[in-house]
Amino acid sequence: MRDIKVGNVIFGKDNLGIIAGPCVIENRDHSLEMSYAIKEVSEDVGIPIIFKSSFDKANRTSIKSFRGPGIQEGMRILSDVKTETGLKVLTDIHSPDQAGLVSDVVDIIQIPAFLSRQTDLLIAAAKTGKPINIKKGQFLAPWDVEHIVKKMEESGSQNILLTDRGTQFGYNNLVADMRAIPLMKQFGYPVIFDATHSAQLPGGSGGHSSGMRDMIPTLARAAVAAGCNGVFMEVHNNVDKAKSDAATQWPLNKLASILIELKKIHNSLR
Fold it and tell me: Residue 146 in 3-state DSSP?
């Protein structure tokens, strides 16, 4: 398996990389507050962390839902996070024309699950030369990811991360099939498990998604035990007031304890 190294965070055979941050950029002050707090957790538990946050939640259930500050302001805020905290940052793109501007700021570009088969988007991301984290679509089998990997490789990229975020079975429900982790690892790239989105109940509250936050630790522990190379978690300092995915963001004050658990599980497998 190819190791993917981003700053001091390594996703690979012998390492467990962590990606954490609020679902959406709510404002500059909140992003800086969260990034400083996450950096402190990282230093306290001895696990390097990549900060994530989205400048635009383009697939919200309702047109009335908060989407974020947009690409220009979002990149200014993420640039400030990098400069002030020293953390590496990740955000997602939704159209090919966003790849260049975003790549000038972030350290990892993410492809959202709903867009994981969009060839033009994958090509544009690959051509930036940045590490690309591709979330497996909820509608895809793990073995279908091979075609996504080939699109990336044939576009010149081997800086690939693959993320499982659950698979939709029936209406308003996701199932986390841990077999997906070893199946996707067969393609030669690190596999990350998205512990917070996997706990979602998509559209389960009518105008927005609900979820089962109490299941996040169980899913995360199971994924690390199954051999994932990284864990992705959306984290907030006031989950009930979060402007996006409030039902499945993990409380900031519980981040350290769950990371310590995951670290112990990972170390026991080495």
Answer: helix
Q: For CA atoms 45, 193, 188, 7, give the dihedral sign.
A: negative
All structural domains of the chain: 4-269 (3.20.20.70)
State the catalytic residues: 15, 57, 245
Using the 8-state DSSP alphabet, how is residue 117 labeled? Answer: T
Q: What is the DSSP letter of 192?
A: E
The SS3 assignment for 201 reads: strand
d(CA 19, CA 10): 11
Contact 176, 194 (CB under 8 A): no
Question: Which pTM was predicted?
Answer: 0.96
User: Which helix (H) or strand (E) segment is 18 a member of?
Assistant: strand 17-21
HEC profile for 28-83? HHHHHHHHHHHHHHHHHHCCCEEEECECCCCCCCCCCCCCCCCHHHHHHHHHHHHH
Using an 8 Å Cβ cutoff, are 69 and 27 in contact? Answer: yes
pLDDT tens for residues 151-180? 999 999 999 999 999 999 888 889 999 999
pLDDT digits (tens, 9 = 90+) for 133-155: 999 999 999 999 999 999 999 99
